[in-house]
Amino acid sequence: MQPRTLLDSLRSIGVRVALDDFGTGYSSLSYLQSFPFDKIKIDQSFIRNLLTRPGASAVVRAITDLASALGMETTAEGVEDPAQLEALREQGCSTVQGYLFARPLDRAAVAELLASRKANAAAA
Question: Which residues does the annotation mark as catalytic?
Answer without folding.
Answer: 77
